[in-house]
Design goal:
125 residues; 6-stranded mixed β-sheet; 33% strand
Length: 125
Amino acid sequence: MKRIIHTDQAPKAVGPYSQAVEANGMLFISGQIPIDPATGKIVEGGIREQTDQVLKNVGVILKAAGYDYKNVVKSTCLLDDMDNFAAMNEVYSRYYPEESPARAAYGVVRLPLGALVEIETIAIR
């Protein structure tokens, strides 16, 4: 059985998808971009500020579903410029200081709304 997860504390979906779906003890969080849920706009600043906002968005969705960062087992990071990889890692490591999840990172041509980073997440109970 699947459960759709939605919270007003995270940005609304910018397309026909759910913020997250839980199924069989696994939580699949759709790719989050650095939208401030209070304004509905991409946060100002560079890759560090955007990565921080993305991971905050992931955190509130995790919480809404009854999970936390320690439950995360896999992340996929999309960057519009691989030159931002080190700076993204710097911020990312603050959210996963121990037992970091498995991860992939890709450089892409463009991200929605001109974002510099997007991160999708899988967590388990």
